[in-house]
Design goal:
The structure holds 2 protein chains of 2 kinds.
Chain A: H1 3-20, H2 22-53, E1 60-70, E2 73-81, H3 83-106, H4 113-131, H5 136-154, H6 161-192, H7 197-203, E3 211-214, E4 217-220, H8 221-236, H9 245-248, H10 254-263, H11 268-275, H12 277-280, H13 284-307, H14 311-331, H15 335-362, H16 380-393, E5 397-398, E6 402-403, H17 405-419, H18 425-451, H19 461-473, H20 499-524, H21 526-533, H22 542-549, H23 553-576, H24 580-587, H25 589-596, H26 601-632, H27 634-640, H28 643-650, H29 654-677
Chain B: H1 8-24, H2 28-52, E1 61-67, E2 73-78, H3 80-99, H4 108-127, H5 131-140, H6 142-152, H7 157-186, H8 191-194, H9 201-218, H10 227-234, H11 237-262, H12 264-269, H13 271-290, H14 295-314, H15 319-350, H16 366-379, H17 386-399, H18 403-410, H19 412-428, H20 435-438, H21 445-463, H22 466-483, H23 502-507, H24 511-516
Antiparallel strand pairs in B: 1-2
Chain lengths: ~675, ~525
């Protein structure tokens, strides 16, 4: 029993106690147990991470229990602790602990809080199992476990049909990715005879250049396996094609979005590629696919994020886009940079989501930014936290001096893409810069629409509701809803969130400001990074990290220029001019609609997969089973043996006797025949 | 006391038989306790069986032998595979009796007698070591099932039992003829002896087809599956549990006990047929399950899809595939049994199987919703539940044989998630549109006692399947050894290529390897 066992299994224990025992121990105890469990796990995780950073820890595998042993296939429950795990441990436990705390405030009025906290802890357990996996099957266990928790939490408000639909969509779309993951595991087992990650990584280089049969084709072995596994990563990390579930997942409570759909679960795909990076290094083709998918997702999601009006959806597309960055970093060989961005992104994106939650909380569940405005003065602490998050995500900093978290990690990715020698590195670089511009634009757009300008709350139905409810108690306020004040506030006074929500915002703000500055040495500097990652399975390309620093100055400045341009355009459009957005939207109407409708992916899938599935199901049932099989099978034979059904109707179990008779006759014949013979 | 000295299998066959006879002559109030007592006694004996079974011991244990009449011998004995399936039967039986406690009010004594008789016959199927004895148990097992559907069934019970009859009759007749031929050829009806008899390859084809006719119906495989949805829909809850839980496993057991080890060459030749039908079944029946409006029909169709994974696993000719198939059988027995019980719970309250009559019952039935969710997840094969271990091993095994079959069969994990979550959503989530559904009571103590044990075993099998793999390991290895000579090559065939000439070699791949992949 080591601290890693406690870190992983304490959340599970807390989830079981809170979930199954809530009726006995009550809501407050359930919340306390889960939250305390996560803070304990977090406190135990940081020393492990620091230990790997300063070189006092080395990688090890802590056994738990046997799992499956079937012929030459065997895999056990075991916890792998190395530098890569340590990074994920601190990210998961810290964000999860803060989200637990935050939920005390955010979910305060919900009648079903123990269930919520139990799900959060259950999720954390599954995620920890994923990152501590030493074999692909345990990773898949965690993979599916987080999928289950995500499904349960997206659908937490299960009376809402939209939440249920989003939950099912998330699960099913992820399963499409899982199909690839499973086939990948099967292929790996077939090829290497093991599913143990270190064994696979050690054996992979020997198979370079070999070919394998698949679906009747002959393909490059390592490319096939890497791409199958990567399809799994695409599903979990919402990459282009399998991304459609992520924006809908915003139906879940906002703390869930922060924990699962920003900081941890959606990064599992990136983690997987980094965990298996020596495997991916054996196939340039697979790396090219990773690069292209990542870069294309980065730009796709950014374009959609430009025009969304729901504050959570903007951040969701932003997440999708940032995950694209992480993937193309991995694809161009900069796994350290990918993990670094994963690390910083976890803090600033969780911060942005929790900040958005604080805004939504203050605005009485209104999520449409068109009905925000001028909130800076009413919820100043939330404003400053969101500001820190925005500065971090847009990568504000001065080359050679320092900056916010995203400045270190995102710029490292863009520079590494430029410096890399992989086939599509310039595609990734160009898109990285362009997407940085768009990121800056939509992030500042969010800030301007929410916190600056004048209040536009009066049109909000949620605010009107709030004022009506309020009016029931206060007869003098009955006309507030119709904006008697004339200042757009409808008389509504947003309040700053309670302390349990503000503390996590404060802690994450520290992360968004300092995480890049403090930790970039360990993650991406050639020497220190090499020492750090040596204790893990991550393939650390120190030459690339060197080359990254040697890129021309214009490359280093390009992302800063992109960031400033985005800020300027957002400022001009949403601060200076009042009608520029409308004018632009009508001037580029087709493009605007294309972005607004998310490139029509949902419509396409609905038409190509969902409706045909139901149509085929009905066809097979009505025409296949009933129309053909039954007609020419049992019903048809009944017509031949015409007495059949009539007899049956008359004597309930007529067939029984017939059957017993036939069976008996058969037996008697058989027995007598054999007796005669012997 | 040495357990091997007492004829424990005969006792396990006799207890339900005697209890069944008793039930026929007593009042309902007495019949129920007698049935519960007998099934629990058998469950305890099953536990004794499990504990005293030595996985490293003789292949056939607890053997008994006595001459019956004529050439039919009373030969019993089990290996690990039989053991696990007997355990499944004796585990589910008390639960079935418990599930019928209140819902059956008509002719209770006869109902209990039918169930107890069925238990005897089920155990007999898995324990018989004489071919004709097996045949008797195998075919007679359907008689109590007919009665259960035909007397205690729903509206269209006649049509359902008639379909059941037509399908099974055809299969059983040809199987009997094949059995007689085999006995004549080998000069013995002793199954362990027959397992070591090498039948001529030409004869194997016909024999295999004859057995296939019977087992494919029992499985059921597409396209001879249409009796199953009707039978399930019409059967009372406990009937569905036994049907899905144990009777569907007899087909798989038959393939494993007879088709594979007795006709290895024919089995290998028919892999394309079996895989083809299984691939169709996974996609076809999953899609059909998606559009069902009737809860029981939906779960029945999902059973066909799951059984297709079993047939794929069995015909992989390797350890993972076959062990996986057995675990799928056990898991499906538990999970679909539990799902039918879950349906029964709400059917008892609202008396309709129509999905749209429910909705939002998580609010008023939280305990039920939790258990139902667990079984739903086990059905979609979530890791950590029994469903995953079996599916994973079967498909890992099938990858060694055919990547096509694996790909198509694995799409079942997507479709399965689709229809099960859609079902769950319509029943447990959403707004409470039906007032009567919203007023239903959460599950009580009796129902908890039925479902909770299954839930525990489902998780146990998912987290620590070694308990269930250990007894079957050696017996599966025996079968794999026996059929190895006919094992298919597989379509993945690795071709090591010198890195320096990799490009050249891949471009000039000989045609035959490509062709191998396309069966």
């Amino acid at each position: 029993m080591t601290s890693i066992h406690i870190i992983v299994f304490l959340p599970l224990l807390a989830a079981l106690v809170a979930g199954l025992g809530q009726r006995f121990i009550g809501a407050v105890a359930s919340k306390t147990i889960t939250t305390a469990g996560l803070f304990t796990a977090s406190l135990l995780s940081w020393p492990i991470f620091i230990g790997f950073l300063n070189g006092s820890e080395t990688a090890y595998v802590a056994p738990v229990m046997n799992w499956v042993q079937s012929g030459d296939l065997s895999f056990d429950w075991e916890l792998r602790v190395d530098a890569l795990t340590a990074v994920m441990l601190v990210v998961i436990t810290t964000v999860s602990a803060l989200v637990h705390l935050y939920s005390w405030g955010y979910m305060e009025e919900d009648p079903d809080q123990p269930r919520f906290f139990a799900y959060l802890s259950l999720f954390t357990f599954a995620m920890l199992m994923l990152v501590t996996a030493n074999n692909l099957v345990q990773m898949f266990f965690g993979w599916e476990g987080v999928g289950l928790a995500s499904y349960l939490l997206i659908g937490f408000w299960y009376k809402k049909p939209s939440a249920n639909a989003a939950a099912i969509k998330a699960f099913v779309v992820n399963r499409v990715g899982d199909l690839g993951f499973m086939l990948g595991i099967f292929g790996v087992f077939w090829l290497f005879g093991t599913v143990s990650i270190p064994d696979i990584l050690a054996a992979a280089p020997d198979k370079v250049g070999s070919s394998i049969g698949f679906l009747g084709f002959r393909v490059d072995t390592m490319s096939l396996l890497c791409i199958l596994l990567f399809i799994g990563a695409m599903g979990k990390s919402a990459q282009l094609g399998l991304h459609t579930w992520l924006p809908d997942a915003m139906e879940g409570p906002t703390p869930v979005s922060a924990l699962i759909h920003a900081a941890t679960m959606v990064t599992a795909g990136v983690f997987m590629v980094c965990r298996l990076s020596p495997l991916f290094e054996t196939s340039q083709f697979a790396l090219d696919v990773v690069t292209i998918v990542g870069a294309t997702t980065a730009i796709f999601a950014a374009t959609v994020g430009l025009v969304q009006t729901d504050i959570k959806r903007v951040i969701a597309y932003s997440t999708c886009s940032q995950l694209g960055y992480m993937f193309f970093a991995a694809g161009t060989g900069a796994y350290g940079a990918a993990m670094f961005h994963l690390f910083t992104h976890a803090f600033f994106k969780a911060l942005l989501f929790l900040g958005a939650g604080s805004v939504i909380h203050a605005m009485h569940h209104e999520q449409d930014m068109r009905y925000y405005g001028g909130l800076r003065k009413h919820i100043p602490l939330t404003f400053w936290a969101m500001m820190a998050g925005t500065l971090a995500i847009t990568g504000v900093g001065i080359v050679g001096v320092g900056g916010f978290a995203g400045f270190y990690s995102k710029d490292a990715i863009i520079e590494a893409a430029f410096a890399s020698h992989s086939t599509f590195h310039m595609y990734a670089f160009g898109i990285g810069v362009l997407a940085a511009l768009l990121t800056s634009f939509y992030s500042w757009r969010l800030m301007f629409l929410t916190f600056f300008g004048t209040p536009r709350w009066a049109q909000s139905e949620h605010i009107q509701h709030a004022m009506h409810d309020h009016g029931d108690h206060d007869a003098h306020a009955h006309d507030h809803a119709h904006d008697a004040h004339g200042d757009g506030t409808a008389g509504y006074h947003p309040h700053e969130s309670p302390l349990p929500m503000l503390i996590p915002l404060g802690v994450l703000t520290l992360g968004a400001v300092f995480a890049g500055f403090v930790f970039h040495g360990g993650f991406i500097e050639a020497e220190t990074g090499k020492a750090f990652w040596a204790n893990s399975t991550l393939f650390f390309n120190e030459h690339l990290m060197h080359a990254m620093h040697e890129v021309p100055l214009w490359v280093k400045l390009s992302s800063t220029v992109a960031m400033l341009t985005g800020l300027l355009v957002a400022y001009l459009m949403y601060q200076q001019s009042k009608d520029a957005p409308q004018r632009l939207a009508s001037a580029f109407a087709p493009l605007y609609r294309f972005f607004l409708n998310k490139w029509y992916f949902d419509e396409l899938y609905e038409a190509v997969f969902v409706r045909p599935a139901f149509w085929l199901g009905r066809l097979f049932w009505k025409q296949g089973d009933i129309g053909i099989i039954d007609r020419f099978g049992p019903n048809g034979s009944a017509a031949v043996v015409s007495f059949g059904s009539k007899l049956a109707v008359k004597m309930q179990s007529g067939y029984l006797y017939t059957y017993a008779l036939v069976m008996l006759l058969g037996l008697v014949t058989a027995v007598s025949w054999m007796m005669v013979r012997t | 006391m040495n357990a091997a000295d007492i004829p424990i299998l005969s006792i396990m066959l006799a207890i339900p038989m005697v209890a069944a006879a008793l039930c026929l002559f007593v009042r309902a109030e007495l019949a129920r306790p007698i049935a519960v007592g007998a099934t629990l006694a058998n469950f305890i004996l099953g536990g004794v069986l499990w504990i005293s079974y030595d996985p490293a011991g003789a292949q056939w244990q607890f053997t008994e032998s006595a001459q019956l009449f004529g050439p039919i011998g009373w030969k019993l004995g089990i290996d690990g595979i039989s053991l696990t399936l007997i355990m499944l039967s004796v585990f589910l039986m008390p639960i079935c009796i418990g599930a019928s406690w209140n819902s059956i009010q008509k002719r209770v004594g006869e109902y209990m007698a039918a169930f107890l008789l069925m238990e005897t016959l089920m155990i007999g199927v898995f324990a018989a070591q004489d071919l004709l004895l097996f045949y008797i148990f195998f075919e007679a097992g359907l008689i109590p099932m007919y009665l259960i559907i035909g007397i205690w069934g729903g509206q269209d019970r006649i049509y359902a039992s008639y379909k059941f009859f037509l399908y099974t009759l055809l299969g059983s007749v040809v199987m009997l003829i094949a059995m007689l031929w085999m006995i004549q050829f080998a000069g013995t009806a002793d199954i362990p002896n027959l397992l070591n008899t090498d039948f001529p390859v030409q004869a194997q084809t016909l024999l295999w087809l004859a057995f296939f006719a019977s087992f494919a119906v029992k499985m059921p495989m597409w396209p001879v599956h249409t009796w199953l949805p009707d039978a399930h829909v019409q059967a009372p809850t406990a009937g569905s549990v036994i049907l899905a839980g144990v009777l569907l496993k007899m087909g798989g057991y038959g393939f494993l006990r007879f088709s594979l080890p007795m006709f290895p060459e024919a089995s290998a030749n028919f892999i394309p047929l079996v895989f083809g039908l299984s691939m169709v079944a996974v996609v076809y029946t999953s899609l059909v399950a998606l559009v069902q409006q009737d809860m029981k029909k939906l779960i029945a169709y999902s059973s066909v899809a799951h059984m297709a994974i079993v047939t794929v696993g069995l015909f992989t000719f390797n350890q993972q595939g076959i062990e996986g198939a057995i675990i799928v059988m056990l898991s499906h027995g538990l999970v679909s049994g539990a799902l039918f019980l879950c349906v029964g719970v709400i059917y008892d309250r609202l008396h309709t199987r129509e999905i749209s009559r429910y909705g939002g019952i998580s609010v008023n039935m939280p305990k039920y919703a939790l258990l139902f969710m667990l079984f739903t997840m086990a059905s979609v094969g979530l890791p950590g539940t029994s469903g995953f271990v079996g599916e994973f091993l079967s498909l890992a095994g099938s990858y060694k044989v055919s990547t096509w079959a694996t790909l198509i069969a694995t799409t079942g994990i997507i479709l399965g998630a689709g229809y099960m979550l859609y079902l769950y959503r319509r029943i447990a989530f959403g707004p409470q549109v039906n007032a009567d559904a919203a007023a239903m009571q959460d599950i009580g103590g009796r129902e908890m006692w039925l479902l909770a044990p299954i839930a525990i075993v489902v998780l146990w099998m998912g987290v620590y399947p070694e308990t269930f793999l250990a007894p079957i390991r050696r017996d599966v290895a025996t079968i794999v050894d026996r059929i190895e000579r006919a094992a298919p090559a597989g379509d993945s065939k690795l071709m090591a290529v010198d890195p320096t000439t990799a490009r050249f070699r891949v471009a000039h791949e000989p045609k035959k390897d490509v062709a191998e992949g396309s069966h």
